[in-house]
Known about the structure:
Layout: H1 2-45, H2 49-74
Helix pairs in contact: 1-2
Amino acid sequence: MVQHILFAQRLLSERDKSAQERDKAKSKYxxxxxxxxxxxxxxxxxxxxxxxxxxxxxxxxxxxxMNNNKVLAHAPVAYP
Length: 80
């Protein structure tokens, strides 16, 4: 009986830990989406060509970061 209780407690702690990791990854993904949107707006407002190219590279890098965070946020959580 004690073993069942310990096992249930361990399962609950693992579930809580994986939920926290998922929430953290989701918030990181949401932040990177906001960053992509901000980069896009900055690029659209740029006047000179040199600054526009710099912002364009930054925008594409932000998209790559967002996609990486998307994969991490939507990847299934592996249990040990």
